[in-house]
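User: My instructor asked us to take a sequence, write out its structure as tokens, and then describe one feature of it. I'm not sure where to start. Here is the sequence I was given:
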Amino acid sequence: MKPWSFQQIRRVTLSRWLARGTREFTGRVSTDSRDVRPGDLFIAITGPNFDGHHFIPEVLEAGAAGILASHPTDAAIGSAVAASVTLLQCDDTIRGLNRLAAAYRRELRAKVIAVGGSNGKTTTKRIIHTLLTTRFSGVASPKSFNNNIGLPLTLLSVEPQHEYVVLEVGTNAPGEVEFLGQVAAPDIVVITGVGLEHLEFLSDIKHVAREEAALARFVATDGILLLTNDSPELLAALRLVHGPRFTIGASGSGADMEATEIHELLTGIDFVVNGHAHYHLPLLGRHNVYNAMLAIGVARRMGLTDAEIQSGMQNVKSAPMRLEPLRCGSHFIINDAYNANPTSMAAAIKMLATLPLADDGGERPRRVAILGDMLELGPTAVDLHHQTGSLAAENPIDLLLLVGPLMQHAAEAARLRNSTVFHFMDVASAAAALPGLLHPSDVILLKASRGLRLEKLLPVLGAVESDFAAPR
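Assistant: Let's start with the prediction itself. The structure tokens for your sequence are:
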């Protein structure tokens, strides 16, 4: 961020002086004591596993210029005074971080683009960022910095010369999107769609839609909302939100931007927009066409030409563990183990089922799905896992390996349809059985909620190659 005085920081974070130091703030904000550099402002966050206040001595040693804390010890205060470091105290450091980011956002010249929705946020954010870098200078949320710590840190990473920032806005409980929307105050809002996510806290699809739609209320008066047109629940939740909007959808859907001539390849997807603009997206999964179209809409809004967009699209790369193609030993892996809900699980299953795998004269490649529990679904979990098992069995998948207690219900449903199914209660049990179940030429999908850490199966499948030729 542009370096501010500690007087400015104290004012916007509603904090008070505990120590006034002489070290100058260089503009970098950190919440990770291991990452602090000389001149940084360190914000001590109290989380479920660590309390940043415990690491204040290390932060002082690393050369921080200032610290924002809520409950520093007397020893920490004395050490800050002795080191000429500014120490500010506020009621809640997470709120202090967000107050600082909201105040800084009001000074930004960069266009703020906020991406929300149940599925595809990270991929859509990455595509937008890749396209915009063909002409502009900007930043995007690293990894999945989409909560009340990651989003403000991303805003505070914007430098005066940047022309845009792409934020990812996540939620797992009511009110989180509204809070982040107020901080971001976006110029462009993208909602990728709504699906069955975090039902333990959001109850049902209507509540999910209301939560995701909250982001649109904070778009600038001269801004725009981009969204898919395939969710009646989302459209209903947006009925009281006014202002320009741009929709994307399938051919014949009546959307402003429609995809036609979609061809799935092992190297990605070819598609045409509104009958004339041809694109190649180097990602797997038919659903990623719609993420790409949302990104195209943003790029056009920012003034990019079709030629610039087509060129930029060639540089798009999959995010780690999100339909990420890998070669592990002799196996072709589609690693989508970062997270899962019923909507994204269904999309991944259909992607595996439609991959164009040709027989090369040797052993016919088999389609193998290794699926793990979908978490935070509340009382609907059993039914939704049962539906996932039925869906997997309806598709041309040769071998279904299901992992976790909830996936037992998916296994029961799949067996009713005579699928070849094996169920394991945990990842360790699955790892022990895999060598005896897989064939060398198998094409394997890994998909589960983050809590299962399904990617731990990769070493069992073989050494991961960074560069390889996809099977045909």
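For the description part of your assignment, you could build on this observation: The chain has a mean pLDDT of 92. Try explaining in your own words what that tells you about the chain.
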